[in-house]
Amino acid sequence: MGESARWHSGELYFADWIAGTISALDSAGNVRRVASVPTFPIAFDWLPDGRMTVVSGADATVLLEVPNAGLVPVADLRGISEFPWNEIAVHPSGNVYVNGIGYDYSGEPADNGVIAVIRTDGTIEKVADGLAFPNGMLVSEDGSTLVVAESNAGRLTSFQVRDDGGLEPGQLWAGVAGSAPDGICWDGTGGIWFAEVPGERCVRVDQGGTVLDTVELEQGCFSCAAGGDDGGLLFMMTAQWPEVMDPAAEHTGRVMAQRVR
């Protein structure tokens, strides 16, 4: 089950939630395993100094890449939410934002999702709540804005980032009726691509919600990343849903790519 697609240093990185791994795919089609992670959801990003930071979602732990030691626990988020943690995004300052879905996967959906910040001094604080299944998350290049996909509300929500790492109240960035946005990525021109599992597609929207482009797929799409040498390739992580969640089922996960600009 491919998730958390990221284009980084000329390679496509992705997590396999069922295998519990993070891997990288190079331009020649070679896949190398980068790390193993104790529990899913698995999401990752890189600090300004180049070290990878990773969410081990079910145990509410954030891990940090340490030379000669692998991934080492650096933050325990259970004091903020006991429910699974999901996506991660690093701010240019080095602060780390992590979101949690706010209920158990097997439970009734609830608008209890949260965002926490882990500051560079090690302090942890809840900075947003009341989200409808927060999923993919991005920070703008200038660090002024954080955007999160709310899968159960069919919208992308933006927050202005304060100097202390806190967030101003959320504002609608884009709403697409009937959608369920999952993973998200910048499109390189100010818009955002979002992956969608039930819709089996990837959708590009501008701020305001106008749909600019759609890539139709044959499987549920969990995550996407714009990459390639010129940023014009859209990589998409797809699999048959919900069968992919059964470890005994046929392995249907794919990495798809399409030129979009």
What does this structure look like?
The protein is mainly beta. It contains no helices and 23 strands. It has strands at 2-8, 11-16, 21-25, 31-36, 42-46, 52-56, 61-66, 70-76, 85-90, 96-100, 113-118, 124-131, 134-139, 145-150, 155-160, 171-175, 181-186, 192-196, 201-205, 211-216, 220-227, 233-239, 254-259. The strands form six sheets. The protein has a four-stranded antiparallel beta sheet, with no helix packed on it. A four-stranded antiparallel beta sheet has the order 5-6-7-8, with no helix packed on it. A hairpin with a 5-residue loop joins strand 5 (42-46) and strand 6 (52-56). It is globular, with a radius of gyration of 17 Å. The two termini are 27 Å apart.
Largest sheet: 4 strands, antiparallel
Helical fraction equals under 10%
Please write the string of helix (H) and strand (E) elements.
EEEEEEEEEEEEEEEEEEEEEEE
Strands, count: 23
Radius of gyration based on Cα positions: 17 Å
Tally the helices: what do you get?
A: 0
Determine the strand fraction and express it as a percent band.
Answer: over 45%
Distance between the termini: 27 Å
List the strand order in the largest sheet: 1-2-3-4
